[in-house]
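Review form for a predicted model. The reviewer records the input and the model, then writes brief findings.
Reviewer: anonymous (R2)
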Amino acid sequence: MNDTTKLERNTWKSYFDNVSRLLDGKRVEIEVASLAIGSQIAAEWLPALGVTYDEQADLLAIMAEGLDHMIRHPREVFVQTEGEELQTISVTDDDGAIQIIRFREQPAR
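Model under review:
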């Protein structure tokens, strides 16, 4: 069963520090949707390296192999989990764009 939770700003740093430890072997897809650009895929199932929130810079960073995706001045952060596993992070930024970060297991070779 999926569970969606709004994260309070004062928990973002510790939450994402903990999540980054669980991303080993995951892949990430990043979709950006706004009125100005429509919906665009910024990253398509790259190996995930981590997620961090820098309080001083007010910056949420999603690191993947070959890509650092920065979200400046996030306003709202929702996470969707299934059990203990993070499925999706949905971020509304200062411009009103919605950035959807999806995670999935890396396929076995």
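Findings: The first strand starts at residue 2 and ends at 7.
Further findings: The two ends are 28 Å apart (CA to CA).
Recommendation: see findings above.
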